[in-house]
Each structure stands twice: as C-alpha cells, then as structure tokens.
Amino acid sequence: MSDLKDALKENLDEAEWDWLIPHAQRDAIIVVADGLDLLDVGEAIASDNMPSVQNWIDEQLLAKPTPEQLGEWNSDRTKRFNALIVEPYVLVQEKATV
Length: 98
Known about the structure:
InterPro entries: DUF2288 (IPR018741). The protein has five helices and five strands. The protein is an alpha+beta fold. β4 and β5 form a beta hairpin. It is globular and about 40 Å long.
C-alpha cells in the first residue's frame, strides 16, 4: 500500500448523513458506486490520476448526489455512509441498511 493510501486510510470513517449535510451544501459530496474501493478512488483523486477518475465518471461510478438521493437522505438523517475526505471533496458510499 502506498504512503498516500495509508494517509487516506486514516481519513476513512463512517458518518451519518446529518454530519455530511454541510458538505452537501457546499457541493463537495461525491457518491462512489458500491463496486469501487473508496481508498482507490481517493488515491486516484489525490494523485490527479485523471484517466481513472474520468473513466469512473463516464461509467457513472462517480457522481454528485441526485436531488432524489439528497431528498431520501435528508428524510433519514441517521443514514450511514462510509466517508473519505479528500480535500476539497468528501467521497461517500451508502452503507447497506440491515
């Protein structure tokens, strides 16, 4: 694992939607598809690996939250996410509800 990935791993955490709302208000949330590893995506963004990032965007594996997602999450503020801060963004993946 690279030093960058090790550093990012320390920023990887679980968060409730309530905590993420301020980041959503400044349009800094990026939703990462379930099939992708948050640390891999964070490392690509932090190291300006634009071909990988653009590929994920093109395949709709990375995207800003939709108004529908925001509405759903706002109605359940205890919704849990895996979150990774990669300034200025916060990468999130929805945690499956049990």
